[in-house]
TrEMBL record:
InterPro entries assigned to the protein according to its UniProt record, in alphabetical order: Thiolase, Thiolase-like, Thiolase_C, Thiolase_CS, Thiolase_N
UniProt entry keywords in alphabetical sequence: Acyltransferase, Transferase
Highest rank taxon of the organism: Bacteria
Record flagged with keyword Ion transport: no
GO molecular function: acyltransferase activity
Name used for this protein in its record: Thiolase family protein
Amino acid sequence: MRNAVIVDAVRSPIAKGKAGGALAGLHPVDLLAQVLRQVVDRNGIDPGCVDDVVTGCVSQVGEQSATPGRMAWLAAGLPEHVPATTIDRKCGSSQQAVTYAAYGVMAGQQDVVIACGVESMSRVVMGSARMGADPYGAGVTERYAPGLVSQGLAAELVADRWSLTRSELDEYAVRSHRLAGEAAAAGLFDSEIVPITTPAGEFRADETIRVGSSVEKLAGLAPSFRSPEAESRFPRLDFKITAGNSSQITDGAAAVLVMSEEAARAHGLRPRARLHAFSQVADDPMLMLAAPIPATRKVLDRAGMSLADIDLFEVNEAFAPVPLAWARELKVPEEKVNVRGGAIALGHPLGASGARLMTTLLATLEERDLTWGLQTMCEAGGMANATIIERI
């Protein structure tokens, strides 16, 4: 079986996902088009050799409804004969896109694939794909009577299950902003960010990092998911999840150029990492956000590795309890996890986040001269992906 390698990985700066955000004036297709164009141009490849463009996007409705990867490729002026597909594994969509790209290469059916993701949460509101409909049906509602819960309430359940306090959650959120702020100030994001041209001008840096965040400020925020219904259903919950210790609603796009080693050599390109092992798991859909724990165990088992073998971890910060419960359960030291901050500081543009984490993980391994990285992502419905990469 052939090796699948990462030749390049780039992302847009992350913008606030609301009116007035730096990317709110840009159609999501045109946002992704710029990222695709730049990953092609900066590697000097003939875009006509790309076998497929696999795109993660969660809210596939409205401006993101017509296979946005295909539309973005065309908007970038790239060859018409190159196909694209769009997938939805919720928050792990573009991490799954990278996995599918690797599968095609490893199987010998493809040589050059771009895995990417986009989400414009300012223009396509989270949850809008449901169009007011019930996505569960009678069977799921009966099985988990009186029904599944929102991700916010799932985060509350995770915090309760792992005995995480409000102060621990807020302290973790402050850490995310501090580390992201330090990385930005040191120019550590420069190698992974590509500039985006918007109607208002060029956008070059994440606008989501709050360097002045403090536990004292966050302590004043009210819980986001407390309601009479939630209190009645879960009377033991203290309700600790706030806007401050949750990921930010944002706009962004990212792309990962995946090739076979032979194709990279033929194009005169040096691979930056090898895609080493993959896992996808599903867990309790009520807890929903705890699945990165079994996903991590499974991918390590497949790779024949242990946690001690991994140099750096990226665990998506959908809510602070996710990485905290993961680290507590697996006994992973904090200094190896999300060392440039995470989605609490940088934001979580749903369909783009998997490729964004991969981009940051690779850049951080290179900057620190380390070898092994593991990325994992919680996903709606109690699913998770995990991927191990080897810097080469």
